Amino acid sequence: MPLEFDLHCHSWFSGDGVSSPESLIASARSKGLHGFAITDHNTCDAFHYMVDRGLARTDGTPVDGFLVIPGVEVSTAEGHLLCIGAVLPQMKGRPAAEVTRAVQSAGGLAIPAHPYDRLRAGIREGVLDTLKVDAIEVFNAAISIRSFNAKAHDYAVRRGLPMIAASDAHHEAAIGTSRMIFETEDFTVRGILREIVRDAKRHEQPLSFRNKLRKTLNNWFRFRRRHTFTPKT
Questions:
Q1: Among 92, 88, 95, 136, which residue's Cα sits nearest to residue 112?
Q2: Angle 45-52/21-30 helices, nearest 10 degrees?
Q3: Residues 148-163 as b or e (16 or more Cβ within 10 Å = b)
Q4: Domain 2-224: which CATH class?
Q5: Secondary structure (DSSP) of the chain
Q6: Tell me: the pLDDT tens digits for 182-232?
Q7: Cα within 13 Å of Cα(13), Cβ side
Q8: What is the phi/psi pair of residue 218, to 5°?
Q9: Which residues pair with 73 in a beta bridge?
Q10: pLDDT in tens, the chain (233 residues)
Q11: Which candidate, 80, 81, 64, places its Cα nearest to that of 22?
């Protein structure tokens, strides 16, 4: 059964995200997605929030036919690294190699986000060469310059690494613009992680001008909106 997932998206728990986790799920469902990885900047609060409200599970199984994969986009000392499939402590500013080892030790995957994008803290090739990553994001729908995606693709080919495409959505309207399509019956976090490293099918589509502009404006005004997780009482 084909399962469609967005592996890079942000909620209002990111400083530059604007949508609630509930809105992200509703939008993803409406577009035919079966799940997504929530990868807010330097926090796993959105995943804790969704677990607390019955929208996600810590055992890696879906809720009402929709699977939320825990994750975080860590601002490492050398650039942004997607950590998918695990909940991590605060690791902002730590070396990329240390963060890579931490997520892999926790059972997740380390995937450099928009490498080569110098305008958005992509990890440089000299550092990538030293990292034992699990895959590369070769198509980021919100990329600054499209040639950066092509360079990431060429790098993944040279190293023989699995490739992913993702939206990097910071608003519910953008989720699923780019996505992965997995041919598997294992509809669990473990099952999806296994498919990622098998180099699954990618749907590659850039964000619309409107959604790119919205993302830029959200980034400019990011300090006004950030949410923090408070458990239900």
A1: 136
A2: 80
A3: bbebbbebbeeeebbb
A4: alpha beta
A5: -EEEEEEEE--TTSTT----HHHHHHHHHHTT--EEEE--BT--HHHHHHHHTTSS-TTS--BTTBEEEPEEEEEETTEEEEEESS-----TTS-HHHHHHHHHHTT-EEEESSTT-GGGTPPPHHHHTT---S-EEEEETT-SSHHHHHHHHHHHHHHT--EEEE--BSSGGGTTSSEEEEE-S--SHHHHHHHHTT--EEE--PPPHHHHHHHHHHHHTGGGT--------
A6: 999 999 999 999 999 998 999 999 986 565 555 555 555 554 556 777 777
A7: 26
A8: -60, -40
A9: 41, 82
A10: 799 999 999 999 998 899 999 999 999 999 999 999 999 999 999 999 999 999 999 999 999 999 999 999 999 999 999 999 999 999 999 999 999 999 999 999 999 999 999 888 999 999 999 999 999 999 999 998 999 999 999 999 999 999 999 999 999 999 999 999 999 999 999 999 999 999 899 999 998 656 555 555 555 555 455 677 777 75
A11: 64
Q: And the tokens for 22?
A: 């509930």
Number of residues that this document lists for the chain: 233
Residue listed under structure tokens 């995200």: 17
| Tokens, residue 49 | 């929030």
